Amino acid sequence: MLSVKSIDNYTGIIRPSGIIDKNLIKAEERGILRVLLSLLLQENTQSIIVKKINSSARYGRLKKALFEYNKILKSTHILNLIDNMALRKAIRSARNRTEAYHQLQGLIRKVYRGVFKGKKIVNNRVSAHAVRLVANCIIAYNGIILNTIYEKMLKAGVSQDIIDEFIRISPIAWAHIAFTGKYSFKKSNGDINIAAMVEELEKHLRQHFWKVT
Fold first, then answer.
1. Number of domains in the chain
2. Is there a single domain that holds both residue 139 and residue 203?
3. For residue 144, which of 190, 192, 185 has the smallest C-alpha distance?
4. Is 7 or 73 the better-scoring residue by pLDDT?
């Protein structure tokens, strides 16, 4: 954790380990704003910006200023984590979801070994997008089912305690998904019977913990 003021100003238990060069940040304010706007407007990705900044020595000061600006964000984040238990739990949950998402993609690649893999860079990029598409379809499928049941629970007057337990169920799940078969990314006239899956899951919930107030 760092500070824009002198370390001598802090006498508490938690003290900064260094000083942020705020003058450099102010001097490169215009460049920093351009980088941030480019990311916010999705004109460039983070990797492209990093490559461009590292490609020329003329971006040296901007690069250092971005590092200094990042120190402010990191220090603020640490302070927020110290004071906010809810934030720590939210971040932990987000990390767990991200890890589960990567595990799902890894499973898809493993089951279809060699299918989502190419010899050229462009083929590997297409394969990576295909894996993400399959993973996102599974998550969307699960989300539709869970949301439908959630709406039914609200209409049925299920107790709030049960609803709180239910909404903890993550849509990033694949134990009920059969990964064998052949993927087709073309338009299909076939309809997925969501209602049947909802009915089966609803029966399971009613048997185990679905209670009406």
1. 2
2. yes
3. 192
4. 73
